[in-house]
């Protein structure tokens, strides 16, 4: 609830200031080097020319200060490979910003030795499925077992622990029912989920879900989950994943800073890198998004749409009440079952209202 209150107050402040575009979660990538070569990841391939480059501690802190977000997600690459990751985390946490440290967990023992637990820090372990599925996705046997050990070790050490799961077309919903139930029973604070994004560098892999395929798949995933499963998302975003809501992307809500600079326009697409956060905010955001840029057509990632759901809640009293009511128990399983019983097709979804960022409604385009 602390984070929810912080975000609510932050959004109110932005509204009072009349700011249309502002960061909610800054993604900080201190390095792009990784100790895995995951099948669906375009990062290490995209940044291969500068794969050895690392941000300094001061560069990281300066970028956070320049952006001034309430939440910082530290990603990469593999953040735990950065020699100063403990200092970077500690100094951002000291500012009382909420920090999510993403990791594949292979270096979890290093983190246990050097990173102190904090109510402002969550360790996010990437887990794309059960043993066989996850090990295939990361292209190395044994990684799943390390990740499970890491989750237990972080929990025992007093850390807040979340997981992040990317769903691909090659897997079955029943596997995720078992995965999420297991993680819930292990005491994981919350599970983040989204369909994989079709990076240009890995687009040749036939593993990515198209938009309506993803919605049908998520309905089947969620309808088989217990209502007590702790998904770490705004419940309105979960509705979006199953096709119960339509949102426009809010790319500007998740600015990303890398060793090459600020990614423009967004975390997933880099037409260029710019030097300052102010330059990033000058982006012509209307040129991007579904129906505007073909690269955006299948994207349903939380980095683009979680902010949209939060904007909806702050603009619509009805949506706000629903978000608050469902915060502890999202109820997405029940809603997914209702949609499946209603026979919602996997493609060609019927007309529905689309929520604009100003809180108005318009027909689906």
Description of the molecule:
The protein is built from 14 helices and eleven strands. With 365 residues, it is an alpha/beta fold. The protein has a single domain (23-363), classed as Aldolase class I (TIM Barrel, Alpha-Beta Barrel). It has a nine-stranded mixed sheet. A hairpin with a 2-residue loop joins strand 7 (256-258) and strand 8 (261-265). Helix 8 packs across helix 9 (211-223) and helix 9 packs across helix 14 (332-341). It is globular and about 55 Å long.
Question: Could you list some keywords that capture this structure?
Answer:
single chain; 365 residues; alpha/beta; TIM Barrel; two-stranded antiparallel ribbon; 15% strand
Number of strands: 11
How would you sum up the global shape?
Answer: globular
CATH superfamily membership: Aldolase class I
The CATH architecture can be given as Alpha-Beta Barrel
Strand content: 5-15%
**CATH class categorisation:** Alpha Beta
Number of domains: 1
CATH topology: TIM Barrel
Compile the SSE list and pairings.
Blueprint: H1 2-17, E1 25-28, H2 43-46, H3 57-67, E2 71-74, H4 85-94, E3 98-103, H5 108-114, E4 121-126, H6 131-138, H7 143-156, E5 160-167, H8 173-185, E6 190-195, H9 211-223, H10 235-241, E7 256-258, E8 261-265, E9 270-274, H11 277-280, H12 302-315, H13 317-325, H14 332-341, E10 353-355, E11 361-363
Parallel strand pairs: 1-2, 1-7, 2-3, 3-4, 4-5, 5-6
Antiparallel strand pairs: 7-8, 8-9, 10-11
């Amino acid at each position: 609830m602390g984070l929810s209150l912080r975000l609510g107050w932050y959004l109110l402040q932005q509204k009072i200031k009349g700011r249309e575009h502002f960061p909610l979660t800054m993604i900080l990538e201190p390095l792009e080097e990784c100790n895995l070569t995951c099948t669906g990841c375009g990062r290490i391939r995209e940044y291969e020319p500068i794969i050895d480059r690392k941000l300094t501690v001061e560069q990281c802190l300066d970028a956070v200060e320049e952006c001034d977000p309430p939440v910082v997600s530290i990603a990469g690459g593999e953040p735990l490979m950065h020699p100063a990751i403990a200092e970077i985390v500690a100094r951002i946490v000291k500012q009382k910003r909420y920090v999510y440290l993403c990791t594949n967990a292979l270096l979890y023992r290093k983190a246990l030795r050097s990173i102190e637990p904090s109510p402002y820090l969550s360790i996010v372990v990437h887990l794309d499925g059960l043993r066989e599925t996850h090990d295939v996705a990361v292209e190395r046997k044994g990684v799943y077992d390390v990740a499970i050990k890491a989750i237990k070790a972080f929990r025992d050490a007093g850390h807040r622990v979340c997981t992040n799961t990317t769903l691909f077309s090659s897997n079955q919903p029943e596997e995720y029912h078992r995965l999420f139930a297991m993680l819930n029973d292990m005491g994981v604070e919350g599970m983040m989920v989204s369909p994989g994004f079709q990076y240009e560098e890995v687009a040749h892999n036939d593993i990515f879900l198209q938009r309506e395929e993803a919605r049908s798949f998520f309905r089947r995933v969620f309808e088989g989950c217990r209502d007590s499963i702790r998904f770490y998302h705004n419940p309105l975003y979960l509705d979006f994943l199953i096709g119960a809501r339509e949102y426009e992307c809010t790319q500007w809500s998740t600015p990303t800073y890398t060793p090459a600079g600020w990614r423009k326009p967004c975390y997933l697409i880099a037409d260029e890198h710019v030097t300052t956060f102010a330059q990033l905010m000058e982006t012509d955001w209307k040129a991007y998004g579904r129906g505007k840029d073909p690269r955006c057509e299948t994207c349903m990632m939380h980095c683009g749409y979680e902010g949209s759901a939060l904007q909806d809640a702050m603009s619509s009293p009805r949506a706000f009440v629903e978000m608050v009511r469902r915060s502890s128990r999202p109820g997405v399983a029940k809603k997914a079952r209702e949609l499946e019983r209603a026979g919602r097709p996997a493609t060609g979804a019927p007309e529905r209202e689309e929520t604009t960022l100003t809180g108005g409604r318009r027909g689906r385009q």
